[in-house]
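Q: Could you fold this chain for me?
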Amino acid sequence: MIRLLSVHRLLGVHRGVAALLAALVFGAALVVSALPRMVESSLDAAARSVIGSAPPATASLAVQFTRRFDLTPMRTTAEAARADTAWRALLPPALREVADPAPLIEITAPSMLINERAHRYLTLKWVSGADRRVRYVEGGPPGPGSGTRLEVAVPAVAATEMSIKTGDTLRLGPMNAKVTGLFEPVSPADRFWAVEPELTYVIHQRVPLAVEDDLIVTALTDGDSLAGAELPMVFRWLVTPAPDRITAGNSAAVLAATEEFGRRLGRQDLELTLSTGFDRMLQEYLDRLAVTRSLITVFLSGLAVVCLGTTALAVLLLVRRVHGDLLLMRARGASLAQVVLACGGAVAVAAVPAAAAGQVAAGLVPGAPTAVARLGPAALAAGTVAIACTAVALRQSQRRRSPRRLTQGRLTQGRLTGSAARRIVMEILVLVVAVASLHLLRTRGLGTGDAFLATAPVLLALAAALAVLRAGPAVIHLAFRAAARRTAAVPFLGLAAARAVPGAALPVLTLLPAVALAAYGMVTAGGLEEAQRQAAWERTGAEIRVERAQGIPQETLEQIVHAPGVRAVVPAAVGTTIAEVGFGGRPATVVAVDLGAYRRLVAGSPLHLPPPGTGALVSPDLSAMRSFEIGWPTQMTVTPAGTVDAMPGVRAGDGALIVLPAAPEHVNTLLIAGDAGAVRPLLPSGARMTTVAGALADITGTPLTAALTAALRVAAAALAAYALAAVAIALTGGAARRAEDLGLLRALGLTRRQAGLITVLEAAPLLVLTAVAGLAAGLAMPALLGPGIDLSAYAGGRQGALAAAALLPVLPCVVAGALAAGVAAVALAGAYLGGSRGHAG
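A: Sure. Below is the predicted structure, expressed as structure tokens.
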């Protein structure tokens, strides 16, 4: 009962400090619990987006069996259906849970010449469920065939292009196919047609060195008739993952299950192959997921250090305020344990409900709670109470020490002993661990998921704080000696007070990591935005890009040139050809454009174009050739005059790149500067328009990128807020000592303005040093971390092309500098006002 009354009395007398402590714990618990939930929700959305936005044929797992010489297996669709059941039984549980149970079976024969006409081919195909997804615009579905005679249905659009009519009999080598009907999709948006796109158009395909396209039409036929035909055949069973069942939590297990499924198929009697892009997409997602989680861990660990340090400052302030009450309790016979429990209970009454309220408030944020979200608030409350109990125990025990014991641990006959030696050892340990973590991070990368590597930035900030604590007194001493040689009393008194400020370690260890990580977060977020803008321009090649495979008519070009809102237009031609080098030639992408006009068009953008010249520019693999022939845009001889690695908006892939620096005769691409709304109504059918704004939206709109950017900004804001709180608490903590000193000086004639200046000079040296060092550490982190944190995947760029060392844009640096200056300015303004107003009497 006595202990409860003591707790109640302590909280009643010092309710202001207790309310401050509760607010700090609530904010820390909210951020520590809500930020992981927010990120986890975005990660789940990113997993769904990765699979849902991919072409279904790429995201599906295709089990394939090719029937070649042995024509006995799979003679009916019933056998194929039983095989589908057998393959699905081999699915590991993790993969079976995310797989769509609806079967999708394909039987496909090789393409065969139609009526022995060159470049005209027909592919016979049966797909389960296709009869429910087609509408016959003419004729009807194909029926069973007999022997070498089959019935087929042809896509209506393909029939028009290939001049095929209902009732025609097509000779297909040893087979005859009668056309019974023409069909079209019932619902073109059905995911089925994304898996079977060849049933909706004619495939145009040109083999190397050919001068004419092969036209291939795919026709539907009866499944049993096709499976029983004496032909080589390809059987495919598709297992389609459901995007809404893939989450950040199960994606690793699903990837491992996909690999296991492939191994199980390899042990079957039939020669089966597993073809899929699902594993590659999951692996890329998991790589980005690991970097995202690790980077969030970096800022969460920094937040934990800063929040705990700020909370510790508030706890120590409360302990100092209740010190007299605790001494009274001891004088009345209370034991040390009772005193410790009384103060710890008071802190617990303030901290535990605040931590619980912060966790409950974080529950309003969508997303699955992680281990950090669950345990973080409880750990924060427990740490706060532990700090209070430890501080009270040390303070009460030190009160009973003799002066001789208080001097131990300093210098004894020239030797370091006690706390000074322990401090040096601890500082060396922090420095060594920070350097080791930095080295491992640069060599191994953040994507390994190692929690130790994620603490490298925090350890670097703590090492910088220790350096400030070591160098700060020397700098202040030099300033004090300079002030001592001058006649003005205020600088001398202010710097003398700065030299004697006690307990500066905890504020510095709290403020410097806060400023450093906030600056690093701002620079990283700003640099990411710059990189995203660069990637958007590189995707389009101009503010507006218009492409049309059939070419752009001259009248359309004239209309766009003279359209209001269009500032400039550069015509270009982009196509593929075979560079006649070596045996069989080399595939190449050709770009014909006036480079001088193109450079003027994109002036002021982040694009870097090759300088205009008199000859062709070629990729390095063709630069050794004196000349070679190409067949597009016309048959011509190319004489290399320079090299080019890439062109914006052009994807050469593994082929060569050739840039012809002249305006093309036949235009199929327009590079435009102006208003996209003015261009869109003028485009002919079949034209495709892309813009920088649209490409940027595609890059920044992905859930992973949005989650990372939002988390960086939230963490930077929270760190800045707690940095201000730490400075305010540190200044408040010395208010009583400062009031006593200034009260004596006021009696000797010190003015209010002089009192404020002395207070500013007392706080300014260490505060400014800490803010400047924190800003420098934050701005240096991208270069120090180097290739360890590669954010190129979030900028739409190639992996490894955009390391964190490159992310140092001007504007975010200015903002980070303003943050550090703002923290110092607010703190010094508060110190001046507190010094002048608090000692007016």
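A (continued): Residues 402-414, 798-808 have pLDDT under 50 and may be disordered.
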